[in-house]
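Page 47, continued from p. 46.
Same chain as before, 554 aa.
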Amino acid sequence: MSEEISTARLLVKCLENENVRYVFGIPGEENINLIDELNQSEKIHFVLTRHEQGASFMASTYGRLTGIPGVCLATLGPGAINLMLGVADAQTNSTPLVAISAQGGLIRLHKESHQVIDLVSMFKPITQYADMVLTPNAVPEMVRKAFSTAKRDRPGASYLALPQDIESRPVSADRQPLAIDPISFTQPTSSDIEKAVELIAAAEHPIILAGDGVLWKHAEQEVRELSELLEIPVVTTFMSKGVISDRHKNALGVVGFMRKDYENFAIDQADLIISIGFSIQQFDPQKINPNRDKKIIHINMFRQDVDSHYPVTLNIIANIRASLQALLQALKLQDIHFSHQTSEIRQLIQEELVSGAKSQQVPLKPQTIVYETRQALPDDAVVLVDTGAVKMWMARLYQTYLSNTCLIDNGLSTMSWTLPGAIGAKLARPNKTVVAVMGDGSFLMNSQEIETAVREKLHLIIVIWEDHSYGLIKWKMDMEIQHHNGVDFTNPDFVKYAESFGAIGRQVTQTGQFAAYMQEAVAAKEGVYVIAVPVDYRENLKLIAKLGNTTMRI
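Result:
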């Protein structure tokens, strides 16, 4: 008789085969065996979290930075449901993630039963693949499918449910994980490249719009070379900051804030958008093509969804790097050059930052916090920016020099992902400085994960922009109805709160303290720092007024 192992052990072997190094989650009665097997693994470290939502954000950020699907784990029912926000976030951000949860035993799924709900049906709309393990022998195929699907050309989330009585069932020890199939690259057609060259040659004011697909396929160098060859500017989405260094003369910054931010002046004049790795979920194309009059070359791994403001003239559906390399080769045989004047846009952004550097007020201007954050950090620090008014200021002004060093969620655009996400980021980039930047509203939604970071002995910096309000909604209300209500709250003493978890707390109360606290936290190389800095969001409406009155010649 052949030796047997548990289904839980087989599942862990399959995870090891997929190069999983961390699993984030919370155990439950129905997955005791799986948790035990994970903790016995020599290759996987199980990170116990304080909320399943935190586990899902840790996994999604880890997947975003490594390209290997992050894995999160929960028990059945409420535990699994708590995973769903981070799973949906990964799916909408095109981030590779695999979620695994327990489920009630097969012997009780046919009837009403304690904590049992149809989890597969719940996860299907927010994943690319969702299924339940019904027999131990299916585990190798289902795990391989979950990871393969999560890593496909447009990455996303997968989900597997493991019933309690399947988890503990024996299976032959001869059952092995499946081999990982080799990666293949789809090449662009020569006719598509020829058409692209023709469209570029016929254009008067082309511009490059770089989305996060450039990051997935590591095509940053090709984007820069295309910009330099044609001498045309590059704008990025919030999620692709760093695709081109903000020090580069052709870098214009981000689009996605408002219809009339500085970068939009360049896009307004453009008659051709070379859209690379862009998906319309990142922001509404109406902001860049309100009159539907621009030609668009769409270079990506997939066709974009239909949108009247994104009328694609040419689709090049192939590996992004391969497409750009072929396009560069073809363009080098031509003599096509443009001369866009971008200095005024770059100057306006720099003026905002300089105004922050010169300000001595407390509460601090948003521009000041952005400027001093950038000054304190090395170029390769990984900064995670939460959703809210803080995102608008950081996305616009935080100078980013390397890809995947300023992470912004603009798919589902959920609040509270950055604190747990920073844990995933630090495990993915253990030698880098990792900073989570958030509003006080976001902070308290997942602040319990400070304990996780302290227990895991991670060096993290958490910066809280404190205004005692849901600041972005207040901003919107003040713009649209000229007053606000239902958005203000009180906060705990952040220093005492941080210290109660074993972290180091700092509260900014006077000029110069924020810069000093940031420098202290970066230099420390260990410990979890929580720095609360009061922000003066009266600058929000001043910015709107300024942008509304800005005129520019390009």
